[in-house]
Design brief:
By secondary structure, this protein is of the alpha/beta class. It has a single domain, classed as Aldolase class I (TIM Barrel, Alpha-Beta Barrel), CATH 3.20.20. It is built from 11 helices and 12 strands. The protein is globular and about 55 Å long. The relative contact order is 0.16. It binds S-adenosylmethionine and iron/sulfur cluster. Iron/sulfur cluster binds next to helix 11.
Length: about 350
């Protein structure tokens, strides 16, 4: 089967899959407190997710990231990881990984490691228990820290993802960095995106802490060396000379990564988003359910990839960001999986 290539000659080798829109947290930048979740019947079953992912892998996807919502709250999720790990066994899949809030890791870290998962991303914005409860609404910090410790003990490499929030975790820049150094976790900061609709963009824009400012503050204490590695995603990395740590910066609102974009996103209802910043999507659930043979599904995937845009639509400039909300995305990160 020939590799999926988009109209701009980019090979599509990375698929992010949201396996549920549900979550045991209600992070303020991600969800409203009273979320209405999708009816269960709309969700792809684990068998359907297996069939879809397997089709993508046959078409050249080599890296699969499982996300949500919170992927580890989906019932039976280990069965799905087990199913995907067979593609690690054949070598078709180079990496199977997940992004999690860490709340279920004491239970899942070991079985995940046993299935061949090597690295995971854990989202953690603060090390202060009160602030953690405030930002996640329903989360408890000790549970997550225990989960991270369990992951490390199981031999998983943990990358911490922290959303940079002005007036919230600015004062923890160095304590978070030090904590990651002490525990040998990589650390990536994410610029807050104008997604969701609960708080209104004004509030979100008030929280906007540009990563160039964060980086400048980091440089006051550390010597930063830019790393040239390209992941095909919106992350740029630096090395801190003093600690040897790798620090990442994800700036989803800039266009500087679109030309090397190698990824697409699948929602838990089978919608394929070709670009995080655009509304265009293809429904794969209908062709999946229409026929037990995969030919129609493959055709639908190829047709979707042929529509992958050159770049995204977050069209406001940094300077004017507070005054313009034209780039507001109405869907939630928990839907497309971040
Ligand atoms: N529940 C898992 C977690 O929190 O890691 C996986 C899903 S979550 C939607 C994936 C990532 O999206 C998390 O790192 C989260 O911090 C990030 N995220 C959610 N809403 C965001 C926003 N408005 N701006 C930037 N990042 C956001
Ligand atoms: Fe849940 Fe992750 Fe969204 Fe927080 S960021 S509400 S943990 S899906």
């Amino acid at each position: 089967m020939t590799q999926l290539i988009d109209p701009f000659a980019r090979a599509i080798s990375y698929l992010r899959v949201s396996v549920t829109d549900r979550c045991d947290f209600r992070c303020t930048y991600c969800m409203s407190e009273n979320m209405t979740f999708l009816p269960k019947a709309d969700l792809l079953s684990l068998e359907e997710l297996d069939r879809l992912c397997t089709t993508f892998i046959r078409m050249g996807v080599q890296k699969l990231r499982i996300t949500g919502g919170e992927p580890l709250v989906r019932k039976g999720i280990l069965t799905f990881f087990e199913a995907m790990s067979r593609h690690l066994g054949t070598g078709a899949l180079k990496e199977l990984t997940l992004t999690t809030n860490g709340s279920q890791l004491t239970k899942f870290a070991e079985p995940l490691a046993a299935l061949g998962i090597k690295r995971i991303n854990v989202s953690l914005d603060t090390l202060d228990p009160a602030k953690f409860a405030q930002i996640t609404r329903w989360g408890r910090l000790p549970q997550v820290l225990d989960g991270i410790a369990a992951a490390k003990a199981a031999g998983l490499r943990v990358k911490i993802n922290a959303v940079a929030l002005k007036g919230f975790n600015e004062d923890e820049l160095f304590s978070l960095t030090d904590w990651c150094a002490a525990n040998d976790h990589d650390l990536t900061f994410i610029e807050v995106m104008p997604m969701g609709d609960d708080m209104g963009s004004a509030t979100r824009l008030d929280q906007y802490w540009p990563l160039k400012d964060l980086r400048a503050r980091l440089a006051e204490r550390f010597a930063l060396t830019d790393l040239t590695e390209q992941t095909g995603g919106p992350a740029r990395y630096v090395r801190l000379a003093e600690t040897g740590q790798k620090i990442g910066f994800i700036t989803p609102l800039t266009h500087n990564f679109c030309e090397s974009c190698n990824r697409v996103r699948l929602t838990c209802t089978g919608e394929l988003y070709m670009c995080l910043g655009q509304e265009d999507m293809a429904d794969l659930r209908a062709p999946l359910r229409a026929n037990p043979e995969d030919a129609g599904l493959e055709q639908a995937i190829r047709a979707a990839i042929a529509r992958k845009p050159k770049g995204h639509d977050f069209d406001y400039s940094r300077q004017k960001v507070a005054g313009k909300i034209g780039g507001q995305m109405t869907r939630h990160m928990s839907h497309t999986g971040g």
